[in-house]
Amino acid sequence: MDTLRSRWHADVVALCPAADRSLLAAEGTDLLDRWLEDHRSYHDAVHPAEVLAALDELHEGGDLPARDRHPAGLVVRYHDAVYDPAAAPGANEEASARPAEERLPALGLPAELTDTVAMLVRESATHEMTADDPATRAFHDADLWILSAPAERFDAYCHQVRIEYGMFAPADYARGRIAVLTPFVERERLYLTDHAHEHWTQRARLNLRREIARLAGPA
Q1: DSSP code per residue over 5-64
Q2: In terms of CB atoms within 10 Å, which end of the chain has fewer, N or C?
Q3: Structure confidence by residue, pLDDT tens digits, 1-29
């Protein structure tokens, strides 16, 4: 948790050195409290930590310039800040973008950057990104890093998502989950950055095919 707090502070201050420190701390606490809500299983505080680690890997791999790490880090904090598994498609992302639009300007961040953060949060609903800049590509891939995780971690992720959607009957969940995962298998290019495309794609496709087969059951 301390790492998430310190990274939040570093990201905001790098983008706005004059940010009000009390507001900065309060917003960091509010965001962390959201990620610690009891109903979360996968979308808990581990998720942003893993996405930030994936951003670091993309930076080290040459796909995320230093100047773009901080905006991407802000997107990580706000995407899924509101998370209700029963919400309509896109509703969580819309609700998560609004706090960014309301609170980042109060911290002193420029309107253009705030708009970019909110846009990427909204586009995380489908991972169909409309921009092609380094921060966009890196956030897209880092958020999907989990698909390429080692098999044990990927299987734990699948179990955690099932817990979050425990209100659905097994057959309904399987149909819905297959519908979500299949497009990622069928995409010509799953990851947008060169590093992720080269190093994560094969394992992600193997994981996805294995989970889809499990959900589909015996042939």
Answers
A1: HHHHHHHHHHH-TT--HHHHHHHHHHHHHHHT-TT-SSSSTHHHHHHHHHHHHHHHTTSS
A2: C
A3: 778 999 999 999 999 999 999 999 999 99
